Structure formats: structure tokens, C-alpha cells
Here is the input.
Amino acid sequence: MNTFGRLFRITSWGESHGRGIGVVVDGCPPGIALDESVIQPFLDRRRPGQSDLTTPRSEADQCEILSGVFDGVTTGHPISVVVWNTNQRSKDYGDIKDVYRPSHSDYTYQQKYGVRDYRGGGRSSGRETVARVIGGAVAQQVWRRAGGGEVYGFTQAVAGVEYAGCEREFIEENPLRMGDRAGYDQALATVQALKAAGDSAGGVVEVRVEGVPVGLGSPAFGKLEGDLARACLSVGATKGFAMGEGFGLAGKPGSAANDPFVQTEMGIGTERNANGGVLGGISTGERVWFRVAVKPTSSISQRQTTVNAQGETVEIAVQGRHDPIIVPRVVPVLEAMTMLVLVDHLLLHQAQCGDWLGSVGGG
Amino acid sequence: MNTFGRLFRITSWGESHGRGIGVVVDGCPPGIALDESVIQPFLDRRRPGQSDLTTPRSEADQCEILSGVFDGVTTGHPISVVVWNTNQRSKDYGDIKDVYRPSHSDYTYQQKYGVRDYRGGGRSSGRETVARVIGGAVAQQVWRRAGGGEVYGFTQAVAGVEYAGCEREFIEENPLRMGDRAGYDQALATVQALKAAGDSAGGVVEVRVEGVPVGLGSPAFGKLEGDLARACLSVGATKGFAMGEGFGLAGKPGSAANDPFVQTEMGIGTERNANGGVLGGISTGERVWFRVAVKPTSSISQRQTTVNAQGETVEIAVQGRHDPIIVPRVVPVLEAMTMLVLVDHLLLHQAQCGDWLGSVGGG
Amino acid sequence: MNTFGRLFRITSWGESHGRGIGVVVDGCPPGIALDESVIQPFLDRRRPGQSDLTTPRSEADQCEILSGVFDGVTTGHPISVVVWNTNQRSKDYGDIKDVYRPSHSDYTYQQKYGVRDYRGGGRSSGRETVARVIGGAVAQQVWRRAGGGEVYGFTQAVAGVEYAGCEREFIEENPLRMGDRAGYDQALATVQALKAAGDSAGGVVEVRVEGVPVGLGSPAFGKLEGDLARACLSVGATKGFAMGEGFGLAGKPGSAANDPFVQTEMGIGTERNANGGVLGGISTGERVWFRVAVKPTSSISQRQTTVNAQGETVEIAVQGRHDPIIVPRVVPVLEAMTMLVLVDHLLLHQAQCGDWLGSVGGG
Amino acid sequence: MNTFGRLFRITSWGESHGRGIGVVVDGCPPGIALDESVIQPFLDRRRPGQSDLTTPRSEADQCEILSGVFDGVTTGHPISVVVWNTNQRSKDYGDIKDVYRPSHSDYTYQQKYGVRDYRGGGRSSGRETVARVIGGAVAQQVWRRAGGGEVYGFTQAVAGVEYAGCEREFIEENPLRMGDRAGYDQALATVQALKAAGDSAGGVVEVRVEGVPVGLGSPAFGKLEGDLARACLSVGATKGFAMGEGFGLAGKPGSAANDPFVQTEMGIGTERNANGGVLGGISTGERVWFRVAVKPTSSISQRQTTVNAQGETVEIAVQGRHDPIIVPRVVPVLEAMTMLVLVDHLLLHQAQCGDWLGSVGGG
Here is the structure.
């Protein structure tokens, strides 16, 4: 199941330690301006080696478009894009060939498939998200062309501490991708202390989308929140999803949880957008917003006990190049997944409810 | 998008105030014992009128199998099941025809489709979940036949208070479907006080599945947690999903979040199953468990301000028959969605990784 | 696999000798006028008992809409429609419980599923096509609303003899649904002679669609002819599909097979539309036309040899009520399948290539 | 719509004059031996330049596996394979940029997408079938491992003349891929005469599969013949599909068309396998066989009249490198599509009807 989406679809392939990571984007409308320079900035935000808070594995992660673009625009046909792997160090992984690293997928993989590329986790490597970021970059071109607004995510909590603020321009200025300038120093100190101890930190990402048209999504199994949740929880290391006020909303009485409609100069909206821009599974036209829990990096250099393939208890200290906190690098991936969901629903909406009936008379 | 599942699929139809609610279950293996008496207990657990904590709308909710069963077993063909509506009181809804009730889908529906069955919410009615419960009941027959263990949910939090205990047999003995016997009186008092005030309560449901084989799910877009999240958040009133320790896990350092593998007499497991029975998107063979946030019933009899279709501010007190807390009735729906996901993955797993290669030589 | 279509989808259920036959139509645009009286004429053209050339089994085949329509128009939600079975005579089938009738599906069904409703063929009964005709009737409402032209089929060959003419109005005036008035008497005599001999006739159906917009379909796996072929060959008793001049085109040299483009007052067209209105898998804007081979009714009253479930050679003379020629009753079914394919592609086309980009700016 | 298959899926990308042609094979069982040397012979049978009957465009068509294989076996993850384009001569196509070549897709493409890679037909190029052949090669490894028998196609008719014989070993010995040794000289002379005249020939391909297990396919929309028809008619230049005796069967009376079951030492079979190894949409366990009409190459060097994008009548003589008969090169493509359909159904069958229930008890 390596294809995502109903109409705007990506098919992802590749392993951390194979030839590269690639994606085929299918269903894209024709005539959208696209070349490598459009996609590359999205990859640059995802790639490792950007600060001492990310793995020192340095990959240029240059993308190459192999099909689906002609004269600078999409043709309506499959857009194949690849990022070649250039910095593989397989020797780092030989000693964990038979060890099931705690909270990694080594064990379940081995049990399910019977064969496993133990170098870097195979398909469960975080490197697979390169494909998603490329797909999201293409989706965002369609989204913007259709009149959609900005999508951005930021680190909303670090190591259990929530940070309320969100200065839009600060996000890309700090390696934690926090929005809260005031809380940054504290959060950074926390992460660096954990790193120094051979430990790691988790956190929460908030994603926001502006300029969402009303009417995306559908009741029953096409609810926007369900599709967003699946999209986000298909990213490695994520453990929870909350739409709008999420679990907090569940703790309030109805009289406080309810969010009255109000008439504004922009049209009908709600008082506080508690439901995250979605009601009954369908976008309200307000900001779409949700939060995703990201667990701490499983690979830590502290010694841990676990078992090996022979069922023996062993000690392990995971070597290799790993991020002390993966949260900031998950941000562009979640943005990408969000774009994929929204553009897919945009196309679905045009197909079923667009204003085209009566206009396509035959020749 | 009213079909759910890849191989074991349900197609849901019907409205709260139409002829009935129905479902077509497709892809079910042949030879599974099935008749109405197998399905009915699942519906009885979902239906309203079971206590003074649920809507007094009383529906017998008797199911009728229309196809796909012959001589008491499934035939491998579509199983069509219907529950006829018998207790519709459309007049209750006439006065809200042009009013957008707070936190309801009235507004988004009207904007998207241009036409709307204002009686009971149309497809966004909670009554649509009848179809899911039927589908889940059939799925559970396949699950059990395949050797799968028990699935059950319970109310883990009420109005913001978490209740830690879970006595399995207590769940069906109390109208809140709580598992914590000690906390029950307090939770009940909270809900009754809110009801008396014309208000409502939300909560959290925890779902557990025992006897899950290792190997269900796949990396990338087939992650079990992603599919479970989508399944659960496609149920009305849900706002959040947490796999295993969820958001809590994101707050811990890696050294505490990691969950070492241990060798037990049952085989390889983990110390505390923090990840909810899933690693890398694939089941570990341990209990699958997760939590779902359910917001308080939006329909409350307290006066609220909102706007109508003309954009005028109006006051509304939602009449009709509504549950002061919907959480206990969501429990069997989430169990059903869980079964649908797991059986679908069971079939997917058999198709790709089952032990059948070499055994099907042609004639 | 009882769901057909990508965006405009039908899910079919029911058996010949069960409670009824039904269909759930999903993905239909909202606001399309629909009630039972719109669908019924389509069913009336399909139903048995219309002449002495069809099975004397007489079913009223009255349809009933159970969901998805409100105030006389579609709501955009699943349209569930049922036709209850009223004239089942199961005793006719008891003696063939263990016999594999020649050219029937008895044997393959039994082998695949292990359980089989031997009364009337279960899901392989021609009665299953009731669901398709209903789906096609709904699709046609969308097609017409979108500006599409007429779709009609007719019997183009009977018992190996081709009849070239096609008078549109004659088709529904004769029980063979032939278009060739001059050849009708001969064809009728052929069929009646076969019937008198306890034998049956096959034939070829031609389907035509006028007013098809240019641009439906896509290269690779979305070719219109591939989707039409699958749609038609999913109808029982069909054995071949030819797009436009079909096999005849394969026999000509390129210089004669090629069909030059010409400029007409209607726009660009071709000299003779040899390719059936499709080039490169995409509609040209000309008439879409193709032919489908329908084998003679397998159930004949002449004695035949076959084997039973025990592998013994037995003689059989198929009793029950059967058509001496099924071809005319296949006509409305193929029209329905054609509509389902075209409307699905219409929606797909609007989603990907419709003129909506830039017009949906968020709120 | 560039993905084919339900469980065993291929996603095809690439253009004739872009960087290359590629495919992502998803859903493949793990543990199947695979490397480039397994796939290459399939491509070698498809590639041009093999005789003076194929285009002199010479491509090495060397495949490269980019993912999904580890230690010489499939991993169960996406298998990405690419063939780089090496012999593009874009200048050949500049003069036809604005001309709609007869029976080509130039016109429909332009109308649908508004943008078109006029060099070699873009996605409608025959070169796209490289992706299918690779996918079919992988599928065939699964098919063999599962016990399936041989699949082979051959040219059964050339330029309107049918050739009855089929010597298996002769097929790959002659450039027409005919099975009829006796008729070869005549057929070759016909094609060479057409070529000399700047013309081209069409024909019919017959495909046979041995060792098919009974039970593949399903009634309604999963009929094997429907899926095979769609698969074959999704290949460019194909115009018709006939299952077993096909259109011929439709011309016989039922008493002659019917094909009695007989008991053989191999099990239950039929007298002459008239239905092509399928009854009721499900394989009988006999040879699966069908025929596909292939029109003559549209690109001929004879002068033809057509119109250009401005609607003016122009004369054209298609330059470039083209096959005087495309039929023999379609053979391996149809074999590939057949394998893709059968393996997909094999997996579907295992999922729903495989002998696994009760065997997967959880841990």
C-alpha cells in the first residue's frame, strides 16, 4: 500500500540504503508550472544536516523530474521524481542485523515479510518521507493555482511542554521550527541536555491551512479529519492526532465546547474555530488546524536492553547518525501530507459538486 | 465516499429520516455462519433508549439480511442488510430548517450540496452508524473464525476526568460503559448534573483488541494506526485519536518512551506495550489499544446564539431527543470500525504474505 | 468485487431467488431530478415477460428508492434502490442441485466458494443486471444534465447473420430489438425455429452514444475502450467486444484502416469514425460505437450430456423458464453499463481537466 | 489513471522522448527471486530493432531495479524499475507539431490536456508498454512460484488472413511471432509487400495460459474476461477482444455453442473449452485463451490527407521510424497484461477464499 490519494495520487518507492527515493505523482491537472526549482525548497526544509539538532548524515537531496513535465508545465500525466541516495554508510548497521531495536520496526518487519533490509530500516526509514514532500510540493502548486491559501506547521510542544505563541516568520528562523519566540531558549536547552545525555525528545506539531474553500470533505468515510488523521499517522514516529481543540474539547461541557456561528464581513464563521475548520467532516471555510504527537527518536546512544532474533536478552547502544529530536523535520512532511489530502478533496469536490453540469455538451 | 475498506468493504446508505439505514458488506469469505441473530446483539448495544442517558427516541433497530447468506452461511457475495426506520418524528425538525445549529454540519452541508435533508442531519446523523455496526458484526465473525481474540471498548474519561480502571465485566453493566467501577458514581453524577442543566458531556473511549496476529499493516500508507485513526475519526463527534500512550509518549524522553523487547513464554513482546500493539505500522502480536476523543453532544437545550441561512443572528434551544452524553453509544461503533480495519488487513496480509505460494498449482 | 466505477459508483447486491436485487449508487452529483418514475422505464425495457421470445417468468420489477433523494432531487449521498423478488419458483431448480449445467457457472462457483445457491444461479443470474440498469438510469440523468446525447443499443446480428440497417424508432417496436426493419422477419423466423427445437440463438449488440464531449478517457490504463470492454464483458453471456470497426479494422492495410481527420461545420471529425469515437483512449467528440458478442442462452430444453458433482456423466434437459434469445434483453443492460462508464469519465475529466482552477479561492 | 491492478499493482510513468520509462510494482509477495537478469529477456522480446519488420529505432532497453529487492529477493515493498531512453531523435517530430495524424491520438490529447508532448506521442507512445512488460515479468515470477503454467501469445492472423496452426517453438523463431509454420511465408510476403508500398498491416494475437487454477475471478464486476478485456484494450492499437470462440460462439445455436462438461483424468473439464477457460467469470482450470485485434500501424509513409490545428486540410507522409506491422511486438505486451490480471486475481482469491481461516490465531 504505497499509493496515497483517490484522484491526486502519489506512489512512493525506495529505501534508505538503496539507489534512491522516488515518487510518481498521478492525477495532477495539466498546465501547472513545475520544474525542479519549484520542488527543491520543500526538500531543503526536510533534509538532514541543517543544524546540530538533526542527524549529521548530509544528503544533498537534489530532486530530478523524470516525466510528466513538458515546456515547463505539467502534462496531466504521471510525474516521476527521484532523489538519488549519495551518502549511505551501510557498515553502520551491520551489528544490529539480528537485534530488535526498542520501539523500532525491526521485529514486526521480520515477522511479516521474512526478509528485511536491516540497513536503515528499509521502507520504514524516515527517508521515505522524501517522496511525500515531493508529492506535497506538487500538490501545493495546484492548491495555490486553485486559490488556496498558505499551509504551515510548527513545533507546538517540546518534551512535554506546550508553547502557545506562533510568530509565522520565526518558524523558519530556528532549528526547532517553533513558533513561540519567547519559549525557544528553554526548549532548546531541554533538547540539548537530552542530546548530551545520549537521549532524545519528542513533541507536538501544529499544522494550519489558510484560505480553505468551504465544502471539502464528505460525511461518512470521506470526513476531512479522518483523511487528515490517516495521512499524518502514516508518517513514522507519530502517535496521536487532534482536530482543532481535540481531546480538550472532549473534556468540556457542550455549552462551552459548542462554537456558535457568527456573521463576519468574510461571511459566516464561528467564534473560535474550535473544531479545526471542519464540521460534519466538511471544511467550513475557516482555517484548518490540527495537532500531531511525535514520539522521541527511538535511536538513542544510551544503553538499552532488548532481545535479538534468537530471543536472547542483549544490550544495545544504537550507533549511527540520528536526530536528538525529529519533530522539526516532521513539520514539512505533515505540511506535505496535508496538501495531498486537501488537493485530493478539491478534485473530488469539483467532480461531484463543481459548477460544470450543463456546460460540457457533446460535439 | 460511502464505501470503507480495501478487500473487506462496507457500503453504507440511508438517512435518519428516510426509509431506513442499510449496508452492503462485500468481500466476506464464504462459509461463515451468519444470520440476523448474530448481528442483532451488536445493534442492541448501539441503539438508543437503553437508559435515561440516551435519547428517548426508541427504535427497535431490527436488522434484516437481504442477500449473501444461504443455508446459514455467507456465500462470498454481497451481504445486504437493512434496518428500517420506524420512529421518525420529522415535525421536531421543521423549526431548524434555516438555522445553522452550533457545531453541527448544517452549514457545511448546505454550502457543499446546495440541498439538505434538515430532518435529523441526513447522512451526518448518528443513525448512519447502524451500517457500521452491522459491518463490524460480520467482520467479527471472520475475525473470530481466523483465531482473533476479543475486541472491546469502554469509556475511559468523562467530562475531562480520566478513570484508570477497567473491569471487563463491568462495562456492559453500566449505562456509561465505564470500565472503572470505583469512579462510576462520580462520573454518573457529573453527567446527570449537566443533563439537568440542559447541557451535555463528552469523554474518551479506549478500544482494546486481544489476540491480534503479528504482521497486520504495512509501512508507508498502510500503517495500522493510520487506518484505525481514519476509521475512528470518520465517526461523528470524534475529535482526536491516540495510539497507545499517544500524546503522553510525545512528552517523554526517548529513554523513558522506548519500550524494550522482552522474551516471554508467549514469544517476543515489549515491557509495557506503549505503542499500542503497533510498531512501524505493523501489529506486534500484543494487544492493540488506542483512545478516541468524543466531544459533548452538540444538541443542547440551553439557549445558544447562532446565525441562520440569511446571516441573521438568532437564538436557538435545540429541541428533539438527544443524548446528554454520546460516548457510551460510540463504544460499539468504534469496536465495529476497529474490526473492519483489522479484518481488512487480515485479508490483505493473507493475499501478500500468506503461506500459499506454491500451493495453488493449476489444473 | 461488486462495486463498479471510480467516482460514479454502483454497488450491486442480491440473488435471483433471494429477497430482491438492489444497488447503491454513490458519487452522484446533488440536485439531479430523480424519483421511481424516472428509473422504472429503464427496468421495464429489461424485464422478462415482454414477448414470447423472453422467459415467461413474469416479474413486475417495481423499483423503490430507499435513500439519497430529498424533495425530488438527489442529495449527493448514496442512492439505495431495491427491486423485490416476487415470482420465485425454487422448486424448478431442485433437480439440478448437483448437476453442472453445460456453459453455466455451476461448476466454477462450487469450486471457488464451496457453497452455492443453486436456485437460479445466485449472483451469476441474469437478474443481477437489474442493479446495473438502475445505476445506468441514474447515470443517464447526469449525462443528459451535462449536455450528453442519446445512448441506444440494438441487435445487429442474430444467429450468425448480420443486419446492417438501423432505424432508430424500429428498435423498440420489435421483440428482437433489431434496428434493421427489412431483415426482421428472417431473424424472427430463425429464432422461432430454434425455440421450437428446444434450442436457442445468440447475436451481437451494437451500442451508440451521440453527443459525447471530446476528451473523456485517458491514455494508459484509463482508455475509454478498455473501460467499456470491461463494463460490457462483465455482463453474463457476453464473449467479445469490438470498438468501432474492431476485428475488421485489423484486417485492412493501414492506408485503408486509417481514418483521416476532416474539418466539418461541427468542428474536427473523421471521415468514417472507424475507431468508434475514440483515439488514443480518449473520445473524439464523434459518436461512440462498439459491438458486443452475446452467446446463445445456455439453458436449452434439448437433452445434453454433462457431469455431476460426483464426476458421473449424466443427461440433462434444462427445465425452468428461459429466453430462446437473450440478446434483446442484454441491450438495455449494455446501454446502462455504457452510461456508467461515460459518466464516471465525465466526473474524472472535470476533476482533472475541468475549467475550475483559480475559481475556488478559500473563504 | 496510470495504476493497474487491485492488489498486485503497477504504476507506469514516462514518455517516448523524456528521460525514460519506468514502473513501480507494488503488492508483490516477499521472497520471490528477482534481479535485472530475470526481467531483461522479457524486454528483449518487446524491444524494437529485432528484424526489418520492426522500427529501426534501436534501444538497448536495459532495465535497472531501483528498489524493492534485497539479497536477490523481493522484499514485499515497491519495486521500482526504470529503462532509460537512449536513442531519442526529437527532430524527426518537429514538422508534425501542429498536424493531427490520422488515427493517432494527437487531436484528442490536445483537446483534453491543452498541452502535448508532440515528440513521439507522449504517453500514448508504444514505448509506454515497457512498463507493462516489466510488471508482467515480475508477475510471472509470482505466477510460477504459485504453481501456474506457461503463458504465451502468437500472431494468429495477419492482414485479414487467419492461420490456424500453433507450433509452440516456432513462435520465437520468426519475426512475425506466428505459430503457424506453414502459413508463415505467405504472411511474410504480404507484410513485406505492404511495407514496400509505404503501407502497414494489422492482425490478431491469441494468448494462452496453461496451468490456471480453478476459481480465479468472480461474478458481477470481477469477471476474469472483463478484466482481461480491459487489460488488453488498454494497450495502444488494439480494437477488439474475444474470449474463447468469441464472436463465433455468438453465431451458433445453443446446442452447438454449449460445451458439455466431461470427466477426465485431470478432473472435470469441457469438451472443447469454447468459453476460453472461464465460466461465469471464473476460471475453470482449463487453458485460458482469448484473441485481440490489433489495427495496422497508423504511421505510414504513403501520403494522407488530414487537418492541422488550424483546421486546414493538409497532406502528410509520416516520417520517422515505424513498424510495418506492430502485431508481433504486441505479443509480449499482451502476455504481460495477462499475467498482471491473473496474479492480481490469484491474490484476491487467496484473500477471500484461501484456506487460511482458523490458522492465524493471534499471539
